[in-house]
Design brief:
CATH architecture: Orthogonal Bundle
Largest sheet: 2 strands, antiparallel
Helix content: over 70%
Low-confidence stretches: none
Distance between the termini: 57 Å
Radius of gyration: 21 Å
Number of helices: 14
Shape: globular
CATH class: Mainly Alpha
Order of helices and strands: HHHHHEHEHHHHHHHH
Mean pLDDT: 86
């Protein structure tokens, strides 16, 4: 237990948490935007997977930043595809989302075999590039806490910093701009924005595109920084965990950030604990993030039921 505490309160563990939380945070923010617009995006898993493979393949033939943009764009295209089928062809959004996940699970394996000449499990035969780390040497010059700050804040990818900025950017967009108000209004009660002349379908379409773009960045971080390369089903349920983080974060950008960090902590624990407790089955340790997701959803459901019970007498009194 002492070894575990020393590990958890180390700078190395903090860096690992940021690394594991970044893909989750991007996916959670993407799920948040689509959920607030009234179009639940259950395809986050598939979007991350396809974007990850796209980035890896492009990085073999182009600079790393071009590969990042390619994965980013792949997520946006999938979001637009979902919007087309749901809003134009009137398909159920949940069924469309599961179709994307199924397509990603099988399609990435097929595309990987074509790119590697037959390998269906990993891109080990592809010399893919990684996102470079960002070092902040000036922090070490700060008296007293400089070395600690340098060890905590250096060594992260550019996408990790972008994820943090995205949290506050999305918060500002949602709560300080008219388009953000339209998006939240469309999700809460679409009839009112429609009566005011706001194009409900257009708002939901672009929210799905934005959701796909953010999920795409999560897949890129996973394949070009957390693991350099692509492995079959490498997202490992992170897209579904992100949906749980949206609810646990009370459908708010700041709450989503903390929820993603919480899941990132348990994901990081599943990485370091096998080295400390070899007698515990690895499968049990790896299931920790999913168990936390289930517990979080149960707690959220109980909190929501309690809030409805409290609000019911107040609504009755008003009527």
């Amino acid at each position: 237990m002492t070894e575990l505490l020393i590990t958890v309160f180390s700078a190395t563990f903090f860096v690992t948490v940021i690394r594991t939380s970044t893909p989750l945070l991007f996916a959670t923010l993407g799920g948040l935007i689509s959920d607030l617009s009234g179009a639940l995006n259950v395809a986050l898993e598939g979007m991350m997977l396809i974007s990850a493979l796209t980035a890896v393949i492009v990085s073999v033939h182009a600079p790393w930043y071009v590969a990042v943009l390619a994965g980013f764009a792949a997520g946006g295209v999938l979001g637009a595809l979902m919007g087309f089928f749901h809003l134009r062809l009137k398909a159920d959004i949940i069924l469309v989302g599961f179709a994307v996940n199924i397509l990603a699970a099988g399609g990435t394996v097929f595309a990987l075999s074509l790119a590697t000449g037959g390998d269906k499990g990993t891109s080990i035969n592809l010399v893919s590039k990684a996102i470079p780390t960002i070092d902040l040497p000036f922090l070490a010059a700060i008296p007293g806490i400089g070395p600690l700050l340098h060890s905590l804040l250096s060594g992260h990818s550019a996408l990790s910093w972008l994820a943090i900025l995205s949290v506050f950017g999305i918060w500002y967009f949602l709560y300080r701009t008219p388009p953000g108000l339209w998006l939240r209004g469309v999700g809460e009660y679409p009839a009112a924005p429609e009566a005011a002349g706001i194009p409900v379908a257009k708002v939901r379409f672009w929210s799905l595109v934005a959701s796909g773009l953010l999920a795409g960045l999560g897949g890129v971080q996973l394949a070009m920084f957390n693991y350099v390369g692509f492995t079959r089903d490498m997202t490992a349920g992170r897209g579904f965990i992100a949906l749980g983080a949206v609810l646990l974060g009370a459908r708010h950008p700041i709450g989503a950030m903390w929820a993603a960090l919480l899941f990132g902590v348990f994901d990081a624990l599943s990485i370091v604990m096998p080295n400390l407790f070899s007698w515990i089955p690895a499968e049990l340790i790896q299931s920790i993030p999913f168990l936390v997701t289930i517990i979080a959803l149960i707690l959220f459901s109980l909190r929501a039921q309690r809030a409805r019970r409290v609000a019911a007498p107040l609504r009755s009194a008003d009527t």
